[in-house]
Specification:
Radius of gyration: 28 Å
Number of helices: 21
Strand order of the largest sheet: 6-7-12-9-10
Helix content: 55-70%
Largest sheet: 5 strands, antiparallel
Number of strands: 13
Structural class: alpha+beta
Strand content: 5-15%
Length: 542
């Protein structure tokens, strides 16, 4: 029992952390990039095998999304939420298995894995709370599995390149784990055997990259593929350095601590060089860290934000896990006479990291829950409107494209998609908000709706009008000021008001030069409030 106690502690600790994540994740719903994999899309088996999504080889995430969708539809989210959590559990168990095969002490290895897991899960909570990042988790799990199989040797070593290839087929994070395997292998296996380990998946990735990665489908559409933007090398270098420096600042929550922690970890790996198995794993992790943030930095060098997103920081902390173990091993050997004190410090570090990780997961879930719940309700409301034969005037279900990500009325009402959606009447508030988005339209031509009378509304001196819609909806024509129209696009703002509730104003842009705009709603028995742009007048009751 004494021999297995560290393993039991690691397993229990990881199960507790993953249980917390799952308890939070199951109350969320599909979000942003998830819909790129869930939307109706005809694709043949070869296209699925080489699928390029947002620059990542995403064959396995596509297969997982489509298989799960075909089995459970979109009515139940929990089956989707389980898979990322299980992958995360597997990843850290594999890391622990790798460390156990080195010269590290049992309890030291257990503490290093638990601290790494808690910090990574906390700082990278979106990796298990956001389904689209399952490719990151799959790449980490398959990558560590490949290193473990190579370390086991014998017939297992022939499966190691296959596991590494599967990681690459999950996302570009698989390349980071290839770097870890390469850095580890050069010290443990030698040049030729390392080439046999990482060469086949690397060659296949390069072939895929040269053939497919320079083109990609627009997010959320079935349209033609477009050329990827060129790499900005200068900005990419800045992003790479900033990302590496930020990993441990974000993980510890201590401002500016990242560079110092990294220096200490590098020294720990150097000090552990006399332990070849452990030192090799630590070195591989540091090589992976540099390559990882080179990919994150240069891969999106045209972006204005630094690569400090939680999903990247998760990968950074994970690949530093062996370096954390190296440092813990070196410290443990230096304080042999104070083993009890070292044990107390290690236990405190595990508890503190665990509490921090749980708190961060809770915060991340609280941020996501209202937005994913809102999107869920809008999807249910859109399906309800379609099933009741109500007319829609606008396609996007959410006006913010960074949130909506291709969730449109045509997509949701597609015959292959509609039966998969949650059923039942939506909440009253969600129904009104959805009506204000999809049953209101602004355009240069008349809608097939009755003309309405309107009245001035509010203290805006006639610049805001109220349009009463009956059972068949209503529309009103606006005459725009030619001078203002010529100088730039006009903005019309609308909101719906029912007998008991009202929505926020929503902005609609009218193309520059247009002198007429029609504002309409197909929602029955509501009041449409229209805030006019400067110089515009409403042609009511024409």
């Amino acid at each position: 029992m004494t021999q297995s106690a560290p393993t039991v502690v690691v397993l229990v600790g990881l199960l507790v952390m993953c249980g917390v994540v799952l308890s939070k994740a199951q109350h969320l719903w599909f979000w942003r990039d998830d819909w790129a994999f869930l939307r109706p899309r005809v694709i043949d088996p070869w296209q699925a095998l080489v699928l390029n999504y947002n620059g990542h080889w995403s064959a396995l995430p596509w297969l997982w999304f489509r298989t799960t969708r075909s089995l459970v539809g979109l009515r139940h989210y929990a089956p989707y939420a389980v898979a990322p959590v299980l992958l995360q559990l597997l990843t850290f168990l594999l890391l622990y298995a790798l460390l156990r095969r080195t010269e590290i002490g049992r309890w030291t290895g257990a503490a290093a894995v638990l601290v790494t897991a808690a910090l990574a899960i906390g700082v990278g909570a979106e990796n298990t709370l956001w389904l689209a990042t399952i490719g990151f988790l799959g790449a980490c799990a398959f990558g560590l599995l490949g290193v473990l199989l190579a370390d086991l040797g014998g017939p297992w070593r022939w499966l190691a390149p296959v596991a590494l290839l599967l990681g690459v087929m999950c996302s570009n994070v698989g390349l980071i784990l290839l770097a870890l395997a390469g850095g580890w292998g050069l010290r443990r296996l030698g040049l030729l055997r390392t080439a046999a380990l990482v060469g086949p998946p690397a060659v296949l990735y390069v072939a895929w990259f040269l053939t497919y990665a320079r083109i990609r489908p627009p997010v959320g559409t079935n349209g033609p593929w477009t050329n990827s933007p060129p790499i900005d090398w200068g900005h990419g270098s800045v992003r790479m350095a900033a990302g590496i420096a930020d990993v441990w600042t974000a993980a510890t929550g201590v401002h500016g601590a990242g560079p110092l922690v990294l220096v200490v970890l590098v020294l720990g790996v150097y000090a552990a060089r006399r332990r070849p198995a452990l030192g090799a794993l630590g070195l591989g992790g540091l090589v992976a860290l540099v390559l990882g943030f080179a990919l994150f930095g240069f891969g999106k060098a045209s972006a204005h934000t630094l690569p400090t997103q939680p999903r990247y920081e998760y990968v950074g902390v994970l690949v530093c896990g062996p370096a954390v173990a190296c440092l813990a091993h070196v410290v443990a050997r230096r304080v042999r006479d104070l083993r009890w004190a070292y044990g107390l410090v290690a236990a405190a570090a595990v508890l503190l990291a665990g509490a921090t990780g749980v708190a961060r997961v809770d915060v991340a879930a609280d941020v996501l829950r209202p937005q994913t719940t809102d999107l869920h309700n809008r999807v249910v409301a859109t399906a309800w409107l379609h099933q009741h034969g109500e007319q829609t005037l606008s396609d996007p279900v959410w006006s913010d494209p960074s949130i909506n990500h291709g969730v449109t009325v045509p997509m949701l009402t597609d015959p292959t998609m509609l039966p998969l959606l949650p059923s039942g009447p939506p909440p009253d508030r969600a129904l009104l908000v959805t009506r204000a988005q999809v049953q209101v339209g602004v355009g240069p031509t008349a809608f097939d709706l009755p003309d309405a009378t309107c009245t001035p509304h509010g203290p805006s001196g006639g610049k805001e009008i109220a349009v009463r819609a009956g059972a068949g909806g209503a529309q009103v024509r606006l005459r725009l000021d030619p001078v203002d129209s010529a100088s730039g696009p006009s903005v019309v703002r609308t909101r719906l008001v029912s007998a008991t509730d009202g929505t926020p104003f929503h902005a609609w842009t009218v193309d520059a030069g247009e002198q007429t705009a029609y504002v309409a709603t197909s929602a029955p028995d509501v009041t449409l409030l229209v805030r006019l742009p400067a110089g515009a007048t409403a042609d009511c009751g024409r």
